[in-house]
Amino acid sequence: xxxxxxxxxxxxxxxxxxxxxxxxxxxxxxxxxxxxxxxxxxxxxxxxxxxxxxxxxxxxxxxxxxxxxxxxxxxxxxxxxxxxxxxxxxxxxxxxxxxxxxxxxxxxxxxxxxxxxxxxxxxxxxxxxxxxxxxxxxxxxxxxxxxxxxxxxxxxxxxxxxxxxxxxxxxxxxxxxxxxxxxxxxxxxxxxxxxxxxxxxxxxxxxxxxxxxxxxxxxxxxxxxxxxxxxxxxxxxxxxxxxxxxxxxxxxxxxxxxxxxxxxxxxxxxxxxxxxxxxxxxxxxxxxxxxxxxxxxxxxxxxxxxxxxxxx
Length: 312
What we know:
By secondary structure, the protein is mostly helical.
């Protein structure tokens, strides 16, 4: 079905208006923060806490780098596993800071094509990587919202029953996917010239396991930096909510949005200067340091492959 030009423009204008509203609210909130106390709270973070958080951040990036190995098995390409993990790490580092269109998609196409992978296969790798990443999210969000929904701030209208209902819906989605991988008699479909093939149930379980390990390790980073002021289940739920908020707003890296969600959900339990200090350390450890490493690795790949003819 063809979209009318006015509808496309309306969507863009609505998206821009939404971003402006979010930016305005963030600026107004930033003016009320005592940044001197925030800076002091960052400086007071114990060294062992920072080292533990750094190790967990590195572990989360390592877990994510395994995601493209699923795509390697799914498509059957023979690129060495080390190079596949390197591409996955670089793409994720840029994805976190510049958005999925540039990082998660653009860098994968660029790097895989430079390494000799055909575009049709790259499309299948990208699709499988995105699916794998969100499968773990759906499973974990479904479990925590259903089994142990967090205590929301008093002024929120959403209650635990509604969170549990959302959790059941997410678990149902995950169950349907796994059920199709295990029992569906039809294993492939063609959509816009691209063949979509269901993975085996074994591969689907690997998808869920790798992605879940990534999200669980990731949630441990802010939890450690908050030094036990909230339990791990609460930190996990807040992180999951912040992640989806960052996707909805389309702001690269969820800059300001992730912090706003943490503040909205936890400021009634943790003093704001301490909370923001922990979040600034989290952004440095999980976003900025990997970006610097990813940029160096990307330059290394470009230098080594610049004499190769790109795949067509």
